[in-house]
Every structure is written in structure tokens, then in C-alpha cells.
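Sequence, C-alpha cells reproduced for absentees:
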Amino acid sequence: MMIPVDFKRAFRVWQRNFTVYTKLYLSSLALNFVEPVLYLAALGLGLGAFVKEINGVPYIKFIAPGIIASSSMFAAIYECTYGTYVRMTYQKTFDAILATPVNVYDLIAGELMWGATKSALYGTIIMIVISAFGLVDSSLLIAAVPLLFVSGLIFAEISVIFVAVVPGIDSFNYFYTLLMTPMFLFSGIFFPLTNLPPVVAKIAFFTPLYHLVNICRSFAAGKLYVSLEDVAWIVAVALILSPYPFRLMRKRILK
């Protein structure tokens, strides 16, 4: 079933969110930018003093591409869980938007596009930072930017699906604790998954962050061809998940 989205109207929703963001970006930067840099410094330099190399790569260079991927993920998730829920429930922004010619499908498309945009934006910012510190071996890493957007679309879709079914804002604790934190820890950012039980590696394969970490790490090393399977997985899952935010949020908003 094709979702009837008017992308011109969806862009207006995106534009509205972008305009608000330009007025509040400093607090957003503190949340999505400072934290990954602290992870990079504390673990890369602190733990890196004890773990010299992984697979022949200095530890700080090993985790740096993964920090790009995780910052990209959290940017989309924060925006499309708490951000979307607050706009829908407390600020009544959705009610105001739906009083215009924008329909519910255009609205959700705009939310997803904005989440994916923030994912690509913050991933790119961290990419620039680690490049400035000499933690990237190849300029091919820039090729990961479009994939930050596509994977950000996946994280936005998952988040909006959860917003559609969650009974209240407090329930986001389950989302972050039971889904996001394990994905963050067991995605291969901080250590290879090869030494863990095989079942852990199999579960990790079905998480988008695992594939995005592989892509960023391969591109940072100049190995463009290595991550073709990961690229195909991300594109396929973004397409497979795409109808569900629209269907579930339509039920939530119009009930």
C-alpha cells in the first residue's frame, strides 16, 4: 500500500521543525555533541591507555567511527521520541498543523525527514571533529553521510512507531533501557563482537546501529567495498519499516 504523502507539504513540516531548531540549537548541541566527544575522550584516551590496539588499529581510532554512528542514532531517537511526543501531546503542535492543508501523512513524513536530517547533521559534526583530531585514515568517510541520513530514517521510524503505541511519556524509559542502551553497547563500537556468545552477534546483526558502525569503520579505513552488505541491509530495512509509522500514528492522532 502506497502512503499518499505530499512531499511539498511534508517539507513545510520539516521547515517548521528546522526553524524552531535554529532558535534552540545550543541546548541540542550540548546533548547530542558534547556527550559523544566525552565518550571518545574518556574511553579512547583513558581505556586506550590499557587497550593499545584492536585488529591492528589503535583503540581510539577503532572506536571513533562508532561514535559517529552512535551520535547519529541518538540525534534521531531523541528528536522522534521525546520531541515528537511533546509536539503531539503537550504543545498541541500537531493539532495546529493539521488545521492547515497538511494531512496526517504529510505531518509524519515531515517528522521522519527531520529526524533523519538531525541524524545526518550530528553524525557529520562528529565526523568533522574526529577528522580534525587525525582519527580517520581515509577521506572516503564522507561517503557515509548519505547513509547517516538513511539509517537516521530507520531510527526515526522506530521511534515514531514507539510514540504511536506508548501509553505515556514515562514509558520511554523502557524504550531507552531495553532497546537503545543494549544496541549502543553491543553494536561493535567499543569492542569486536567475535569473542561474545554467537547468539549476541546474531542479535546484533538485526540492529541498524551494528550495520552503521560497520559502514563508518570501513569507510574511515578506506575500504568502501567491505560494507556493501551493510548498506543493502540499511536501505532494505528503511523501506520495510516505512509504512508502519504512518499507519500507527494515524490511528493514534485520529482516535
